[in-house]
Amino acid sequence: MEKELTSKESLELITQMITKAKKTAGGDGGFQMLLWGWAISICNFGHYILTKLDFDAPYVVWLGLIPVIGISIWHGVTKSKKTGVKTHLDSVLSQLWIMIFVGIVIVLSFMSNLNMYQNPIILILASIGIFTTGAMVKVNLIKFGGIFLMAAALFSFFLPITEQYLVAGIAIVIGYLVPGYSLKRG
Amino acid sequence: MSPFSPLDPLLHSQLRLAVMSLLIGVDEAEFTFLKEQTQSTAGNLSVQLDKLEKAGYIEITKSFRGKRPLTTCKITQKGVTAFESYVENLKKYIE
After folding, report:
1. CB distance A1–B44 less than 8 Å?
2. Burial label, A120 (beta-carbon count in 10 A; 0-12, 13-18, 19+)
3. What phi and psi, each to the nearest 5 degrees, are found at residue B65?
4. CA distance, residue B39 to nearest chain A CA (Å)
5. Closest C-alpha to A135, from A97, A93, A85, A185
6. Which residues of chain B are within 8 Å of residue A11 when distances are taken between CB atoms?
7. Closest residue of chain B to A6, computed from CA coordinates
8. Is B27 within the bounds of a domain?
9. What's the pTM?
10. What ipTM did this prediction achieve?
11. Domain carrying residue A93
12. What's the pLDDT at B38?
């Protein structure tokens, strides 16, 4: 591969390699957004339906998130091993979402102090994460998802607690799944 | 200073330039990633990486992932400056 390069060939090579590196590191095709989007929306709808059916412990649906956490971590770790490349963008995004996850866990731990109004707060945290992700990867549809989640959070504060689960489910479908599928399509 | 400064001979080689272009946009990259993307042989790539490291353009870290050896490469500030001035010079040649 040692040959004399012309100036034009050099520039073409530089552009080609920069594009290759970008493509390899360019996110995970929306996998995490789709995984969490489906999991959280199903849990919200499940919680809402079980409450309406007078089920004693509608919150059991949230136990379904335990394997999702495992899948999410496993996928993140194997993806970085498989690509063989680390970027600042990937690192910032994963740190952002780890902090949002920690924030959500704290909110859930103090649900009773919040008079069970945790759903709108979780939507606000998710909204910040989605909007910032959209801004960093420069995809407007993801930013729109973040704005929609923020609007849903505001709306939720005016609703009874049970209905908040329904709104959160719908908000996650639009805020996570719509941009997630758009990322997957490429 | 003449508008046509000589191009850095260390970067004006296909494989070394390809490696530097891959590394410029990332924090670090593994040897296998560089080998795949440049479609080079392990032997040739090792030689060229060694030259870049000796010039202070990249840092090479050798570690283990499980039982397998892992080589990761990272561009240094000196490497970034050299790459940028190479591109600037290249533009002058094309203009």
Report:
1. yes
2. buried
3. -115, 105
4. 9
5. A93
6. 87, 90, 94
7. B12
8. yes
9. 0.79
10. 0.83
11. 28-185
12. 93
As averages over each run of 10 residues, the pLDDT of chain A (186 residues) reads 75 87 70 92 96 94 94 87 82 91 95 93 96 90 95 96 96 92 79
In three-state secondary structure terms, B64 is strand
Half-sphere exposure of A101 (CA within 13 A, CB side): 14
Q: How far apart are CA A106 and CA A109, in angstroms?
A: 5
Chain B touched by A114 (CB under 8 Å): no
Query: Are A84 and B25 a contacting pair at CB < 8 A?
Result: no
Per-residue pLDDT for B81 more than 80? yes
Tokens 């012309």: give the residue. Answer: A6
Q: Using an 8 Å CB-CB cutoff, list chain B residues near A10.
A: 7, 12, 17, 90
Q: What is the pLDDT of residue A106?
A: 96
State residue A26's pLDDT score: 56
| Structure tokens belonging to residue A145 | 């998802």
For residue A117, the distance in angstroms to the closest alpha carbon of chain B comes to 41
Question: Residue B4 pLDDT more than 70?
Answer: no
To the nearest whole angstrom, how far is the Cα of A13 from the nearest Cα of chain B?
6
According to the model, what pLDDT value does residue A25 have?
Answer: 61
Q: How many domains does chain B have?
A: 1
Q: Which domain holds residue B63?
A: 14-88
Cα separation, B22 vs A85, in Å, equals 10
Tell me if B3 is assigned to some domain: no
Total tally of structural domains belonging to chain A: 1
